[in-house]
């Protein structure tokens, strides 16, 4: 019997591929037409790595997260592509098999996680439920309690508070509890979808540090999804930029921030106010995100792109590696200037 | 302030706002209203229930409109003894004579005199001593309950009056009652709910306790008692049902809707624009409550029809003719248990009541999806 | 004091546009119909500040610090419990907190507000024209024709061009950014002197925040309005504001010119706040300033420094004395702390 008090990542050796998303295409069917939510997305998450998916609302990042957990709504269709965890395809599993892998292999910290606690049950009991549903062996009540206590200590919560109800927790405490729940079955990979949105700045900082500590101590693989690039910069080593359902840039976090290759990444970085660096030398992004039912021809970003050339309107660029470990989907990427680091 | 209305001085780009305004405002609003109506209609008509409901209501509408038309034209041809065969009150099979009132005979049980009983519900003022009236004589041949045969499409009631004609007339009564009850109920509920939500405090407490009281009192027994004291006619019944229905549950529901509107930032914005209480209530809160009000209007109609039917069945109302009265007549003349043999006595009236209510209910359900976007299918 | 108009005579031209003095908002708790309240939540607890004409002040703090409440008191959406809010209206100082009904109309022409939620701050049943023209309509300014022209001009100003195609649209036909532009047009249509902006970009997509913020900066200069910018995001406050005031639990703990305050924060809370702001650069190493966890109470707070429970530098002086007053560090930089 596995040591129930051990909290660990059940992933493999650091650096080896854990999760492979290959050419994923996913659409939503609506009355107005097919929404092309995820279009040909490919990336790999290695063991022990933290990767970020950054983009605005509607870019498809949450859709990808839901696809990985197979928690998509009824009107969604996975048109093509594959998702492999440790070499096994997740999309080919039936619901029962997927349920066994959910939480045990892939768990999630949801968006607005503070509200995903059921107010009429104690926090501890809700984590117990997760254990009962997903832990491979049946645990005794005491074993469950001990494990939850260990989880709470790991995330910086007093174990005695597991007997409390959600409304007795502050926002930050609830978020820590959500992280505890995500770790409860020793998953291989955690998906953190906007883990700190709606938290105050100081609490957000504490939570991010907590997550980083967990990642490093346990060697946990994490996918961070956020619209806030400053948050992503803090906690990830690799980064994918998404726009209108497509992955437009993929590389190490430092590379993408200092040497962006896609105009959208560049503009996103240039349009983010910061407390350091030049105060107002910023470049606004014109226009609005596109309609995904009838996306623009060619490159989906071309209507808003300041570096647009004719080819962009006709042909859709594919994600191509242009430097070491750095890929971009753009015809005119060479024109995109470097940004360099922010000085205090 | 004139300077407020001239365009700001530092205009870099060429822009003349006068070039923009082409249509007068009222015409624009008309156009917008029409566009909104078309859009809501498109949403509404997706739902088969709603269309079915509308068709049913249209059917009864035709019935109601047809009655006076038919009475004035086609049915005048079928006369016997001076009265149309299709008269809703008495059949033509009776002989009318003139008589003078010399004494009053009062029924010891109901304390209603014979003259009063005779003229109750006919809409004619009750005659006094010495007046001369027309009275149907004890017939040489008693009024005949006829089955389905010409000229009576649906037969006659026990008094010889044509059932089909009564049915059409009943539709008129149903619409009238439904309209009065629904409009008064919802107008009152909207007002009470909105004022209660907006002002809060003592006003809210008083109005809500009033609403609790109204919910507490059962409608039917109350109306039975009321009808003992007053001559309850159709209009009065409509208003009674409207008030007692409107102050109760509907007011509470509309109040909660008004509350959810009141806390939205655009109400704050309206206040900052200088709006006073009255403006905010009428221009901002009520327009956002009205869709729900219209919805409840539909359900108010169904309630009103059933209440009237019940009260008429119990013989408590002073209405000239309605579907409830038809059933009442059949019942008091002893035909309740005769069943299928005399189906035309109760079945058409009962079916009309049910269908009419169902029509409004279906429309209400379909409207629910228009008003409440969350109920719509993806 | 029954007078709401304090005539300061000549010289107010160079004085502040807005002066807030000892402003407080207390919410009674556990009050029943028959009993007086004993417990109060000190949402805004004795704050004072000034805004000069044409200046912008950022009010920064975490949730529950009282910044939104302050904004609501400045626009009379909430009544102040005590204190004064003095607004300079063409030489006369009006006390907004004790304003007479006869002056309300005038007040509504001077002070306007922009809200956080672009979806809920526009009435869904009214067109863009109706919404923007609301203040003109209520105050009966101009004829219908003139109002339409003014609204069209404003729409052009906020970048909703061509204006005629936006005039009669409904909010659900607009995107979030467009709605917020409508909200800005609505605030400026009556030519106010002072604007309160409550987190106007926090619910917008990141890529359009800058364009909205730039729009506000441009229009503030063109229309010559001062504004109070309420936000929890220090980076945004830096972008938008000339001066920043940091609030904690109903008190202003530090206030000063933006760059000065960010380069040289003196209050422990300000330093902790600044150190916690994530920077969009993975190579940037932040100096972390830790404060203790714990929830300070806004309910009947004891008469000590509000930050005492969480302050890493608390001394006996902080424990025994009342909440510190402001120390003037020069250059308009004030801090409320005993341990500088």
How would you sum up this structure in a few lines?
Chain B is mostly helical and 378 residues long.
Largest interface: A-C, 44 and 39 residues
Any idea how many domains of chain C?
1
Beta content of chain C comes to: 15-25%
CATH topology descriptor of chain A: Rossmann fold
Largest sheet of chain C: 8 strands, mixed
Percent of residues in helices of chain C: 25-40%
CATH architecture verdict of chain A: 3-Layer(aba) Sandwich
Q: Would you report the number of β strands of chain C?
A: 13
Number of strands of chain A: 12
Q: In terms of structural class, how would the helical and strand content of chain C be classed?
A: alpha/beta
* Helix/strand class of chain A: alpha/beta
C-alpha end-to-end distance of chain A: 53 Å
Q: State the order of secondary-structure elements of chain C, H for helix, E for strand.
A: EEEEHEEHEHHHHEHEHEEHHHEE
Q: What can you see in these coordinates?
A:
The complex is a heterotrimer of chains A (344), B (378) and C (340). Chain A is an alpha/beta fold and 344 residues long. Chain A has ten helices and twelve strands. Chain A has helices at 61-69, 95-101, 123-134, 141-155, 171-183, 201-218, 229-235, 253-258, 263-270, 310-314, and strands at residues 17-30, 33-46, 50-54, 76-85, 88-89, 106-109, 189-193, 221-226, 238-243, 246-252, 320-323, 326-328. In chain A, a hairpin with a 2-residue loop joins strand 11 (320-323) and strand 12 (326-328). The longest helix of chain A is centred in the middle third of the chain and has 18 residues, at 201-218. The radius of gyration of chain A is 21 Å and the shape is globular. Chain B has two domains: 48-67 and 161-375, Orthogonal Bundle (MetI-like fold), CATH 1.10.3720; 96-136, no CATH class. Chain B contains 13 helices and four strands. In chain B, the strands form two sheets. In chain B, strands 1-2 form a two-stranded antiparallel sheet. Chain B has a two-stranded antiparallel sheet with strand order 3-4. In chain C, a hairpin with a 5-residue loop joins strand 12 and strand 13 (334-335). The longest helix of chain C is centred in the middle third of the chain and has 18 residues, at 206-223.
């Amino acid at each position: 019997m596995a040591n129930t008090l051990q909290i660990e990542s059940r992933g493999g050796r650091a650096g080896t591929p854990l999760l492979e998303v290959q050419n994923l295409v996913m659409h939503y069917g609506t009355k107005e037409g097919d929404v092309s939510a995820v279009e040909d997305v490919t990336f790999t998450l290695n063991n022990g790595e933290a990767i970020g998916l950054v983009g605005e609302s509607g870019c498809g990042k949450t859709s990808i997260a839901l696809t990985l957990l197979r928690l998509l709504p009824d009107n969604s269709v996975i048109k093509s592509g594959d998702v492999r965890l440790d070499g096994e395809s997740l999309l080919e599993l039936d619901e029962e098999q997927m349920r066994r892998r959910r939480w045990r292999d892939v768990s999630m910290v949801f968006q607005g996680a503070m509200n995903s606690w059921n107010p009429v049950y104690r926090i501890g009991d809700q984590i117990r439920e997760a254990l009962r549903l997903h832990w491979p062996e049946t645990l005794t009540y005491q074993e469950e309690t001990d494990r939850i206590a260990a989880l709470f200590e790991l995330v910086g919560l007093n174990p005695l508070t597991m007997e409390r109800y959600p409304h007795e927790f502050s926002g930050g405490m609830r978020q820590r509890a959500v992280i505890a729940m995500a770790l409860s079955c020793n998953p291989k990979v955690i998906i953190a979808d906007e883990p700190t949105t709606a938290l105050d700045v100081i609490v957000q900082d504490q939570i991010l540090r907590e997550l980083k500590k967990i990642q490093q101590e346990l060697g946990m693989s994490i996918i961070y999804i956020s619209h806030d690039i400053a948050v992503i910069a803090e906690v990830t080593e690799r980064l994918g930029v998404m726009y209108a359902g497509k992955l437009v840039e993929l590389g190490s976090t430092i590379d993408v921030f200092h040497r962006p290759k896609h105009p959208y990444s560049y503009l996103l970085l240039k349009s983010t106010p910061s407390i350091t660096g030049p105060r107002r030398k910023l470049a606004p992004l014109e226009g609005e995100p596109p309609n995904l039912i009838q996306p623009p021809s060619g490159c989906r970003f071309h209507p808003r792109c300041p570096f647009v050339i004719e080819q962009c309107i006709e042909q859709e660029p594919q994600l191509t590696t242009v430097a070491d470990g750095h890929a971009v989907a753009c015809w005119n990427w060479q024109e995109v200037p470097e940004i360099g680091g922010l000085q205090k | 302030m004139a300077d407020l209305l001239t365009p700001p001085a530092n205009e870099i780009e060429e822009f003349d706002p006068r070039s923009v305004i082409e249509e007068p405002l009222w015409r624009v609003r008309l156009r917008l209203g029409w566009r909104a109506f078309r859009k809501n209609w498109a949403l509404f008509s997706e739902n088969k229930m709603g269309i079915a409901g509308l068709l049913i209501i249209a059917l009864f509408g035709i019935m109601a409109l047809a009655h006076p038309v038919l009475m004035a034209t086609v049915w005048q041809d079928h006369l016997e003894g001076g009265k149309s065969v299709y008269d809703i009150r008495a059949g033509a099979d009776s002989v009318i004579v003139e008589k003078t009132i010399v004494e009053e005979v009062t029924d010891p049980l109901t304390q209603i005199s014979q003259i009063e009983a005779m003229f109750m519900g006919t809409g004619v003022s009750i005659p006094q001593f010495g007046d001369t009236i027309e009275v149907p004589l004890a017939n040489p041949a008693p009024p005949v309950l006829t089955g389905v045969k010409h000229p009576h499409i649906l037969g006659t009631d026990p008094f010889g009056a044509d059932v089909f004609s009564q049915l059409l007339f009943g539709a008129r009564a149903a619409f009238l009652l439904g309209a009065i009850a629904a409009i008064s109920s919802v107008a009152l509920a909207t007002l009470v709910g909105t004022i209660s939500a907006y002002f809060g405090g003592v006003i809210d407490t008083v109005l809500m306790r009033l609403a609790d009281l109204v919910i507490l009192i059962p409608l039917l027994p109350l109306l039975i008692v009321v009808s003992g004291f007053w001559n309850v006619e159709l209009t009065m019944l409509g208003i009674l049902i409207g008030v007692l229905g409107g102050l109760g549950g509907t007011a509470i529901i509309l109040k909660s809707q008004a509350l959810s509107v009141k806390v939205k930032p655009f109400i704050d914005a309206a206040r900052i624009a200088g709006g006073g209480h009255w403006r905010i209530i009428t221009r901002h809160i009520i327009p956002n409550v009205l869709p729900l009000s219209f919805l409840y209007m539909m359900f108010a109609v169904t309630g009103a029809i059933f209440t009237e039917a019940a009260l008429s069945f119990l013989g408590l109302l002073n209405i000239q003719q309605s579907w409830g009265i038809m059933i009442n007549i059949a019942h008091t003349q002893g035909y309740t248990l005769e069943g299928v043999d005399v189906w035309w006595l109760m079945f058409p009236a009962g079916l009309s009541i049910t269908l009419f209510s169902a029509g409004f209910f279906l429309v209400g359900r379909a409207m629910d999806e228009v008003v409440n976007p969350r109920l719509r299918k993806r | 004091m029954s007078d709401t108009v304090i005539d300061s005579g000549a010289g107010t031209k160079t004085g502040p546009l807005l002066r807030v003095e000892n402003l407080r908002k207390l919410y009674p708790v556990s009050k029943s119909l028959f009993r007086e309240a004993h417990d109060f939540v000190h949402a805004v607890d004795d704050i004072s500040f000034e805004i000069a004409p044409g200046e912008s002040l950022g009010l920064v703090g975490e949730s529950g610090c009282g910044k939104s409440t302050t904004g609501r008191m400045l626009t009379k959406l909430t009544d102040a419990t005590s204190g004064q809010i003095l607004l300079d209206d063409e030489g006369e100082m009006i006390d907004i907190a004790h304003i007479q009904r006869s002056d309300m109309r005038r007040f509504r022409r001077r002070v306007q507000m922009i809200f956080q939620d672009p979806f809920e701050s526009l009435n869904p049943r009214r067109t863009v024209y109706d919404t923007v023209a609301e203040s003109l309509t209520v105050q009966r300014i101009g004829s219908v024709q003139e109002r339409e022209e003014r609204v069209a001009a404003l729409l052009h100003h906020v970048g909703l061009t061509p204006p005629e195609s936006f005039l009669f649209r409904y909010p659900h036909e607009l995107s979030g950014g467009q709605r917020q532009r409508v909200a800005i047009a609505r605030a400026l249509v009556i030519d106010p002197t002072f604007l309160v902006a409550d987190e106007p970009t926090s619910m917008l997509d990141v890529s359009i925040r800058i364009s909205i913020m730039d729009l506000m900066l441009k229009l503030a200069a063109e229309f010559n309005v001062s504004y109070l910018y309420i936000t929890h995001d220090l980076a945004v406050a830096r972008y938008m504001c000339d001066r920043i005031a940091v609030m904690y639990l109903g008190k202003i703990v530090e206030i000063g010119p933006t760059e000065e305050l960010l380069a040289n924060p003196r209050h422990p809370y300000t330093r902790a706040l600044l150190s916690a702001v994530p920077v969009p650069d993975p190579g940037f190493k932040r100096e972390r300033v830790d404060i203790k966890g714990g929830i300070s109470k806004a309910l009947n707070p004891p008469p000590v420094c509000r930050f005492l429970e969480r302050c890493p530098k608390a001394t006996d002086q902080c424990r025994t004395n009342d909440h510190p007053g402001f120390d003037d560090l020069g250059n308009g930089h004030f801090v409320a702390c005993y341990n500088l």
